Amino acid sequence: MTLDLLPVGQTARIAAVDWSVLAPDEGKRLRALGIDSGAKVSVAHRGVFAGADPLAITVGRMTVALRRVHACAMTVEAA
């Protein structure tokens, strides 16, 4: 399943990221935030606008706003 489909509150581990879908500077920013393969994440909130963009995800003790297109590039496994 991809990160955008993860239910709110459920913890998962990022199994893979399709970096080719993302712009190089976006990938660099996500890696700097610790969002990469092996990271444990959970969806804290979903946006209220059409398409439920953005997602608020928790990585460690940090909450990060993430666009749905970025979340679609990440495959997650239940932790």
UniProtKB/TrEMBL annotation:
Gene3D superfamilies xref list: 2.30.30.90
Zinc recorded as keyword: no
Keywords: Iron
Residue ranges constituting the Ferrous iron transporter FeoA-like domain according to the UniProt record: 1-78
Superkingdom assignment: Bacteria
Keyword Iron: yes
The protein, known as: FeoA family protein
